[in-house]
Design goal:
Strand content of chain A: 15-25%
Number of strands of chain A: 17
Strand content of chain B: 15-25%
Structural class of chain B: alpha+beta
CATH superfamily of chain A: Alkaline Phosphatase, subunit A
Largest sheet of chain B: 7 strands, mixed
Radius of gyration of chain A: 27 Å
Number of domains of chain B: 5
Largest interface: A-B, 64 and 74 residues
Oligomer: heterodimer
Number of helices of chain A: 13
Strand order of the largest sheet of chain B: 1-2-3-4-5-6-7
Distance between the termini of chain B: 115 Å
Low-confidence stretches of chain A: 42-46
Helix content of chain B: 25-40%
Chain lengths: 482, 717
């Protein structure tokens, strides 16, 4: 039986249909009068990029990435219970079915193990810091320790990629690229996003250029990797037999040719190319000024440790990071490798800490004494945490820890983050989070917020949908904001 | 009747489409002033559809009292009117939503429910006309409509009266979510409004209309006409009257062009005056149903939810002007998309001219942050900086000022942060800036200012933090090692440069493999000239520091080139390099990447290679093999090296066999040179056999497994 409803009630004649249609479109037309930029011919971006959405707390970021995942249990998350229960089996009620990596899945026992290193409370905040980080302990009232980070990945590459790009697969723009895209560059003589690598003495994990990729954003937003050698930006010097005047002349003529091409094809990438040549030319002046350490006062060298004079060390990178940041580079990304202590924590971790501790604290103090800490966000941390049980053989004086995504510790300083604060809490076993969890997406949302960007509004249309750094999740962690 | 019905129906349809369109493009709509008036009618209009809906229900209940035909006509009229007024109300409501400061969550709920309500009313009319009179569908729709009426009404009420306005008196639990027990109503909800919207003109310095609001005593006293309010009577209070004057009126406050009060803020001020303009009363002193408490709580809550954009008393500079001020060496940009305030940064000191500072006068009012770090700014330039009267933050770190011109900054009433690190200022020269009313932080690290002077400055000016370095450590530290600048293979006689980045260090070195001594070893004063590959050991010393650890490197110098090189055994397939060519191409490998054309790797069998020096060979005294060591990765020094010599490949005899010293523990990765001295005989052809370690030692994690040898170059001297 045919539906009477369809027969009659929706019965519409052509005249009626067209009449209604006209009325509807008329209405839309009237409404469109209220949108001043509707027919301006500008491409609809849904947003303007190049400036913060609201006045930012932080203008620049220095991200001290501790690659390989330093153990939270030997650094900032003090768990005396683990020492008490050393050797006992991890209770199933705590593990709650957490998956294991291939490295411990064959292990029959999961004996708990406490920190070999002593902890003490420091500063007005009374935060616990391990004896391996005596200098960071001195600036503990300037930093905000987040003990409740958690991630989804359990192996280095996906976890690292997640931390840096907001996705585990490695096809998205990294954080620095998003910021360069959203905020533009402050100093036109330097790239907005710089990457510095160093290697510690512990078990290392690789870093790859996909971590500082521009993904689907314009290639201008890609991170520029600085070399670890004496010459920190390669191929910047004029070649032998050609001076700057010749270079200028060559660039002028090249620009004319490129401009002719641009007039013919109208491809905006040509203009980008001309600008990039110009920037490289200006970098010839800007970069030597940055890498010249001979004008740094003696006590700066002392503060960072003499290692800061050897290019390619973490200390040298920290000093360079400060100089780059001071010169208006939006995002300076450091990676320090060697934190993957599956075994030999007692032997390796102090070496890693030694590399990092002094220079990190120096960076905080240096920014502060220049009046830059309040506008520079410093982030320190790895890609996940480490297990509270021992990997491999637990001996009296040594042990190792496997990857642990459920709970780990990072810290931030400056740039609108509450100083002298400890946020979030893990359980007595240091295994699960009991208060204020911060997911990687939340971390990204918060960082963008500090830089004056709504994480939901900073997006880019690609393959038919809009992408964000936080993709479809993320909440600003208001509790750590000033 | 039919005509009116058709016109009304079309009109409703028209507005419905318009409404949906407007909602879809909400954030791109800019409202002309006359439509704002329409928006303000929303609170009046909204009573019509509510009344009509109630009337509709009454009609339906009294259905039997009417004749059927007449009843249908009445129903139609009422339905049409309901739908029409609901639609118009929704549209006007949208206009209103674009004007006020409303909490985003409640606003979204109200918008959606209001729009749905108007759509439902329209549906009701359509159902009625399309022969669905009094059917289940009709009544269903009707019920839904009434439901939405309550919901929309409720959310609307929340917007104007605050959360839980209706039921607040019933609930017993005191609502302390935002109420700070210690804060007075004035502090919590009135003062922030005044601070945000009034203080720019009504402060000690400016005192427009002789009315100062920044101190409670002066605020109470009033302006040139005397007291600004009558306790309990907002309608008779001058302050409130002025707020309500039309914007065009000269007496309207805040003046046209300044940030205006929101409806909520006006209400707050009125309620506070109505309640007696009490400065002490705490929120907790008020009853929960006190309207003052309700609105004050709402004001405080909205303050917490919003990202507050700082308000400025000036308007933005034209985009064109700002754009023109941008050069590669000077960036000028707004603090945010909506902010009129500007920041200016200067870069590259070689390109700095005072003129560039002068040019910023075009945006003198808008400039709030000025960064001249490391620029050769002199004291005279401070005169120009002093004319940017809205500056809040200046960075003059490592500039060329000595402080004599700091008095030029005296007019900067908003300056709260001044950085002078690394300049030649003195404690004395800081005097004029220490009295700036807004100054909070002063950075004087790395200047001549002593710790005592710093402490004295802070003591004399309690509101100002004077910062120097917090780094205090007397421990003597070890210097870093010196470096060799040359990379790869050095040509014979090419200067070899050793360097240390710290000014004033002495570098001492040896070339014989012995450890350098900080006193007796040769001092480095000019680049070295080397004839053969040499092991350089060097250390850096400076007074006040411990001497560095020894820097050790092999400097490879170009040797004699064979005519032909051949590999007699095949390298492992992962490390094939470029075959025989890799051994004499003059290219050095890196220690961290072995899968690379410089390196040849062997594990299962020894490396065997032939080097042909042609018919008239010159004497070769040393063969040097450059090999990689990466103990953790099983890459060890060779175990045994054999050198064979003769006239050609088939006529050779063993002339040297060497056991190489093996490591006894893990060590850092490096490239090492193995030097093999030879008898002085002119052979045409040399064969090298390099055997990898066959069993890794016991202490190694790979004990018992085969080791690797990695060779990147062989030199003949």
């Amino acid at each position: 039986m045919k539906s009477e409803f369809i027969e009659n009630r929706f019965h519409v004649t052509r005249r009626h249909f067209l009449g209604k249609l006209g009325l509807g479109f008329g209405s839309v037309a009237l409404g469109s009068l209220l949108m001043p930029d509707l027919f301006s011919g500008k491409e609809e971006l849904g947003q303007t990029v190049g400036l913060p959405h609201f006045a930012p707390k932080a203008k620049r970021i220095i991200y001290l990435f501790q690659n390989g995942a330093p153990s939270q249990l030997e650094s900032f998350d003090y768990k005396p219970l683990l020492t008490k229960m050393a050797g006992e089996e991890l209770p199933a009620s705590i593990r709650m079915g957490q998956r294991l990596t291939g490295m411990t899945s064959g292990q029959k026992k999961f004996p708990l193990v406490g920190s070999h290193f002593k902890f003490q409370q420091y500063g007005k905040s009374g935060a616990w810091v391990s004896e391996m980080f005596p200098n960071i302990a001195k600036v503990v009232d300037d930093i905000c320790i987040i003990k409740s980070m958690h991630t989804e990945a359990i192996n280095h590459d996906p976890a690292l990629t997640f931390m840096q790009t907001g996705a585990q697969q490695g096809n998205r723009p990294s954080m620095g690229a998003w910021l360069s895209y959203g905020l533009g560059s402050e100093n036109k003589n330097l790239p907005a996003y710089c990457v510095l690598l160093s290697r510690g003495r512990g078990n290392g994990q690789g870093v790859y250029s996909k971590l500082w990729t521009n993904g689907f954003l314009d290639s201008i937003h890609q991170g520029v990797q600085f070399s670890s050698s004496e010459e920190r930006v390669l191929y910047l010097k004029d070649p032998q037999g050609r001076d700057r005047k010749d270079t200028r002349k060559m660039l002028d003529n090249l620009a004319q040719l490129n401009d002719m091409n641009y007039k013919e094809f109208g491809d905006p990438e040509i203009q980008t190319r001309i600008q990039q040549y110009e920037m490289a030319y200006r970098m010839q002046t800007a970069v030597p000024e940055l890498t010249d350490l001979t004008h740094e006062p003696d006590n700066i060298i002392k503060m960072y440790g003499a290692d800061c004079l050897s290019p390619g060390t973490y200390a040298a990178n920290c000093l360079l990071a400060r100089k780059l940041s001071e010169a208006g580079v939006r995002f300076v990304q450091l990676y320090h490798q060697g934190w993957d202590q599956h075994g030999n924590i007692v032997g390796e971790m102090p070496l890693q800490a030694q590399d990092v501790d002094r220079a990190t604290a120096a960076l905080i103090m240096d920014l502060k004494q220049r009046g830059l800490l309040d506008e520079t966000l410093v982030i320190w941390g790895g890609e996940f945490g480490r297990t509270n049980y021992c990997q491999g053989d637990l001996s009296k004086d040594n042990y190792g820890r496997d990857h642990h995504p459920r709970c780990y510790t990072i810290w931030m300083a400056g740039g609108g983050v509450k100083p002298g604060m400890v946020y979030g809490e893990s359980d007595e076993f240091g295994y699960n989070i009991v208060r204020d969890p911060v997911h990687v997406n939340d971390f990204h949302a918060t960082v963008l917020h500090l830089m004056g960007l709504h994480h939901e509004q900073l997006n880019f249309k690609h393959l038919g949908r809009r992408y964000r750094l936080t993709d479809v999740a993320g909440k600003v962690v208001n509790g750590i904001l000033v | 009747m039919q005509k009116i019905k058709s016109i009304l129906l079309n009109l409703i349809f028209f507005i419905q489409v318009l409404l949906i369109f407007l909602l879809l493009f909400d954030d791109r709509i800019e409202l002309p002033v006359w439509l704002q008036v329409a928006g303000r009618l929303h609170p009046a209009l909204l009573h019509l559809p509510i009344g009509l809906l109630v009337f509709l229900i009454v009609l339906l209940l009294a259905r039997n009292e009417f004749k059927k035909k007449a009843f249908n006509k009445i129903m139609l009229i009422v339905l049409l009117l309901t739908s029409f007024t609901a639609t118009v109300t929704a549209l006007f409501g949208f206009f209103l939503s674009r004007q006020g400061d409303y909490g985003p969550d409640a606003l979204t709920q109200h918008k959606i429910s209001g729009t749905l309500l108007s759509l439902l009313c329209y549906g009701l009319v359509l159902a009625f006309i399309r022969k669905e009179k009094y059917s289940t569908l009709f009544y269903g729709l009707g019920l839904l409509t009434v439901g939405f009426m309550f919901f929309a009404g409720h959310t609307g009420g929340t917007l104007t009266h605050g959360e839980n306005y209706v039921f607040a008196p019933l609930s017993n639990s005191p609502n302390n979510a935002v109420a700070d027990a210690d804060a007075s109503v004035f502090q919590m909800a009135v003062f922030p409004i005044l601070e945000k919207k009034c203080f720019t003109c009504h402060n000690e310095k400016k005192a427009k209309g002789k009315f100062v609001m920044t101190s409670v005593a002066k605020f109470k006293k009033g302006g040139k006409h005397g007291k600004e309010w009558e306790e309990g009577m907002p309608e008779k209070s001058r302050m409130i009257k002025y707020i309500h004057l039309p914007l065009e009126d000269d007496d309207h406050m805040p003046p046209d062009g300044k940030p205006q009060l929101s409806t909520q803020e006006m209400k707050m001020l009125e309620s506070w005056i109505r309640a007696g303009a009490d400065f002490e009363k705490k929120l907790t002193d008020l009853k929960d149903d006190d309207s003052l408490k309700i609105i004050a709580t709402a004001v405080a809550a909205s303050k917490n939810n919003h990202i507050e954009e700082k308000q400025y008393g000036f308007t933005a500079a034209p985009e064109e002007v700002v754009r023109k001020l941008n050069t590669p060496f000077r960036s000028v940009f707004p603090l945010s998309q909506k902010s009129p305030a500007l920041q200016a940064d200067f870069f590259i000191k070689e390109s700095f001219e005072s003129g560039a500072l002068e040019e910023l006068k075009e945006v003198r009012d808008q400039l709030v942050v000025l960064n001249l770090s490391k620029m050769p700014v002199i004291d005279k330039d401070l005169l120009v900086i002093g004319s940017f009267k809205n500056l809040e933050k200046i960075n003059l770190n490592f500039s060329k000022i000595n402080g004599a011109g700091l008095s030029s900054l005296q007019g900067l009433k908003n300056l709260n942060s001044l950085s002078l690190a690394g300049t030649d200022i003195t404690s004395e020269s800081l005097k004029p800036v220490m009295v700036l009313p807004a100054l909070k932080e002063l950075f004087v690290w790395n200047t001549g200012i002593t710790e005592e002077q710093r402490a004295k400055l802070e003591a004399q000016h309690p509101g100002i933090t004077v910062r120097t370095s917090q780094f205090k450590e007397d421990k003597t530290l070890r210097l870093s090692r010196p470096l060799m600048v040359n990379e790869g293979v050095v040509k014979k006689g090419e200067p070899v440069v050793i360097k240390h980045s710290m000014p004033g260090v002495t570098i001492r070195y040896t070339l014989d493999g012995s450890n350098p001594d900080s006193v007796v070893s040769k001092m480095y004063d000019a680049p070295l000239k080397l004839l053969v590959s040499t092991k350089i050991k060097a250390m850096a010393c400076k007074s006040g520091w411990y001497c560095s650890e020894v820097f050790e490197t092999a400097c490879f110098v170009e040797g004699q080139r064979p005519v032909h090189v051949e590999l007699l055994t095949t390298p492992d397939k992962q490390y094939r390099g470029e075959g025989a060519k890799s051994l004499t191409d003059g290219r050095k490998g890196f220690t961290d990447v072995f899968k690379e054309p410089s390196w040849l790797g062997y594990s299962d069998q020894p490396l065997a290679a032939g080097f042909d020096f042609g018919q008239n060979p010159s004497a070769i005294r040393t063969i040097m093999i450059s090999y990689g060591r990466s103990i953790g990765s099983y890459i060890f020094p060779p175990m045994v090296v054999e050198v064979w010599g003769g006239r050609n490949r088939n006529d050779l005899r063993l002339i040297k066999s060497l056991n190489v010293e093996q490591p006894v523990k893990d060590e850092p990765q490096r490239i090492e040179a193995l030097s093999i001295p030879l008898e002085k005989v002119n052979h045409s052809y040399y064969k090298l056999i390099v055997k990898p370690v066959d069993k890794l030692p016991k202490w190694h994690s790979g004990k018992g497994k085969k080791g690797w040898v990695m060779i990147d170059e062989v030199f003949f001297y």
